[in-house]
Amino acid sequence: MARTPQDLARGPFGPFVARRDAVPLFPLLGDRQAIFQAAAAAVLAVTDLSVLAAALVLAVIVRVKVLPAVVPVFPPGLPPALGEHLWWVLAAGILCLAYEGLYTRRLPFWREARRLVRAVTLAFVLVLAAISLGKMSGEFSRTVLVLSYFFWIFLLPAGRLAVKRLLARLGLWVQPVLILGAGKTGRLVAGALLRDKYLGYRIAGFLDDDPAKKARGVRVNGIHFPVLGGFRDSDWVMAQTGARDLIVAAPGMDPKALVGLVNRLQRAARSVMVVPDLFGLPVMGARAEYFFEEQTLAFRLHNNLASPWNMFVKRAFDLAAGTVVLLLALPLMAAIAVAVKLDSPGPVIFAHRRIGRGGREFRCYKFRTMYLNNEEILRQYLASNPAAKEEWEKYAKLRGRDPRVTRVGRLLRKFSLDELPQIFNVLKGEMSLAGPRPYLPRERLRMGNYAETILLARPGITGLWQVGGRNEIDFDGRLRLESWYVRNWSLWLDITILIRTAGVVLARRGAY
């Protein structure tokens, strides 16, 4: 039975909801939301234009003031007509950003950053083509354009992040959303929306036909949300809450009923997202296909790491980035080696056998962080500490105090500096910068069916297990994360993992 207006009157809407045909709480709320959305898009466009212009100015300053002093081959001046052409460079940038849907779609930060990079790359190529076809080489500076391109890549995401936070505080970026389905899937969706503030969605409530769920509501991450009615009440609840974005999270619903519900919702909603019962399938690079006459929807999935070209790209990236990291880290690695040697007896580098790609074992390098008799220390510690033994069996490591670890070792593990020598494993082709955790041979059986997927990739110095919680994730959760990574690999995913790893390590979240 659907929830009545009288029921809702005792809830968050209070006395404003007296009867079903009552005037909505905010008669123009839907229009206000549309105005807010248009205002937010306009502010984003102005911000992007300002960032593009600032990047061009910065590129000109670097070209005129810095490069001639560092590399004398660059003349100090610029083509006199350069200023006359900068306006259409800015126009090209804005048009490409709009073409990528960056003023109409709400995306998580890293997915939006990927679209930003794609948009500015397209603008860069178009401007280069226009310069070449228009024979304007003498009127333009390619160096300024190249510098601007790299400044755009870094400044645009940062500018959008700052502005969206400001818009959220002003109430212009926040949009109410209704979740249809108060079961496990609906709670997962709500948790995702609560974690990702960048999307700007505020959960107005849930809809569900289950009387028990209507009575007790839904609790997600310690926050209580009301179930405002049943699926049939969607039009009325949308009018009361102003929510025009709906998420249907009821994978157990009869397919015909689901199609009917979505078709009905589309008449009044701005957007309807349907969460299917397809958990675990690869999603990165998946494409929706359809057959007109049969009215059938299908998803085309790809095994990215089965492609020789993708494996070549990943390996080339590892070699290039790994070489740069090694050159930058060599002085630090030399200092760490001295500290490890002075702190306790034993070798500086510890080489442990791990499982690599295809199940082949290799010697994984780390700075030694434990005493030489660490196995005996562990055995005695677990025998006298039942809580530590239970933790070891669940996480395959000690998350708190570990008596095996030396004084210098504790500092190295806190900032993950003990893993720096694994760069040599990367250059040798045994590991990757980003990938699954390098598992111990004794953990092979415990990996179960996940091993077949995880061992398709080279293990990584970092990975989703690290940026997703590190030691706060249990062994089974780590296996699920890493099998998802292998099925959904992309170069952009590796880049985001590496960037996020720096933040996780500096914040020491989930450290040893």
From TrEMBL:
Please give, as recorded in its UniProt entry, the membrane topology of this protein: Multi-pass membrane protein
Q: What is its EC number?
A: 2.7.8.6
One Gene Ontology term of the biological-process aspect is: polysaccharide biosynthetic process
Where can this protein be found?
Answer: Cell membrane; Membrane
| One Pfam family it belongs to | Bac_transf
Coiled-coil region = none
Keywords of the record: Cell membrane, Membrane, Transferase, Transmembrane, Transmembrane helix
GO MF terms, alphabetically ordered? undecaprenyl-phosphate galactose phosphotransferase activity
Q: Does the keyword Zinc apply?
A: no
Identify the GO cellular component terms for this protein.
Answer: plasma membrane
Residue ranges of every copy of the Bacterial sugar transferase domain listed in the record: 314-506
Chief localization = membrane
Q: Which InterPro entries match?
A: Bact_transf, EPS_sugar_tfrase, NAD(P)-bd_dom_sf, Undecaprenyl-P_galact_Ptfrase
Stretches that traverse the bilayer: 38-66, 86-104, 116-134, 140-163, 319-340
SUPFAM superfamilies tied to this protein? NAD(P)-binding Rossmann-fold domains (SSF51735)
PANTHER family linked to this entry: COLANIC BIOSYNTHESIS UDP-GLUCOSE LIPID CARRIER TRANSFERASE (PTHR30576), UNDECAPRENYL-PHOSPHATE GALACTOSE PHOSPHOTRANSFERASE (PTHR30576:SF4)
Family designation: Belongs to the bacterial sugar transferase family.
Q: Please give the name of this protein.
A: Undecaprenyl-phosphate galactose phosphotransferase, WbaP
Organism of origin: Desulfofundulus kuznetsovii (strain DSM 6115 / VKM B-1805 / 17) (Desulfotomaculum kuznetsovii)
